[in-house]
Amino acid sequence: SLYSVFTVLFIYFTSISTAQTTDCLHLREQCINAANGCESVWNVIEDVCNISVLGNRCKAEDTIGCNRIIQVLADEYPEFKNCVCTTEDFCSIMTLLGKQCGINKDNISTETKLQWSLSALSKQAYTANRTCLDVNKECVEDEVCNKQLSMYLKVCSVNKKCNMEECQAAIRFFYQNMPFEVAQMMTFCDCIQRDESCHRAKELLHGKPCAVTAVPPPSCLNVIHMCEEDELCRKKYTTFRSKCWRHVTKKCYDDEACLETLIKDDMPCSANADCKAAYISNWGTMLRVECTCQNLPPVERSLCELFHHMLHSKSCFS
């Protein structure tokens, strides 16, 4: 198991001299040549990161799983802390495994698209009003969808300590790499009030609680302001506004004083395919974090409720 593997690593690294190098390749070489069981750990890492010894290449299709193991490694063994980075999906793999892991990002998304083209699920036409239990079941029964789903659930699992940023990255990867029809089915599925198993399936598909539940919940004003300070989120929010809420953008753009004058009835939403794609693209960003307008001074409440309506009301798509 992974834990016994990391126990071996721990025993090995506590015996390394204190004159520690931060060169990841050097650490790796020391580990492989130690002849004390450490090599078997690298076999696990190389297996998950899909490194071909013969081709001297790494095809890490499961970048999330690979990065996750490198992250666990660094959490447990600080020697590796400089081998982990967060700037992009492939960063830690490249830092730890060096040139051996010359990944072509385009190849990965092409391979994922190719896998989906063989999936029966992706050939289904989108139908509204699907229950989340049905959609979840269909995904689990579909080999390609199940592989993507289990990768994402491994990171966002409720029975371990939740890392919101990691889970959000996993949910972004999950929704970005599936056909639009499938993403729509998952995003817009729903449940009747008392169907517990359906509600559990919905939470799994929508990243709850890990990717969307902050304690205490932030105000929707804070969510928008935090999003605007983050480059990735800001781009997605700008697209979402222009594709779904054109009237709002046209009338007020970013002017909060102007936005406060709008009421929900004065906000037609386009709800076309471009809008749906922009809404799906918000998954895995702070725009999907559950927010509140309670406890705000009255002067801020109407603007906050307008943002809540834009981000969380399904009225646009129902």
UniProtKB/TrEMBL annotation:
- What's in the GO CC field? external side of plasma membrane; receptor complex
User: Could you confirm whether the keyword Cell membrane appears in this record?
Assistant: yes
* Keyword tags: Cell membrane, Glycoprotein, Membrane, Receptor, Signal
The signal peptide stretch is 1-21
Q: What is its main location?
A: membrane
User: What residues does the GDNF/GAS1 domain cover?
Assistant: 132-210, 220-316
- UniProt GO MF annotations: signaling receptor activity
Keyword S-adenosyl-L-methionine recorded: no
What processes in GO biological process is this protein linked to?
cell surface receptor protein tyrosine kinase signaling pathway; nervous system development
Which compartments is it annotated to reside in? Cell membrane
What family does this chain come from, according to its entry? Belongs to the GDNFR family.
Family annotation (PANTHER family) = GDNF FAMILY RECEPTOR ALPHA-LIKE, GDNF RECEPTOR ALPHA
What's the protein here called? Answer: GFRAL protein
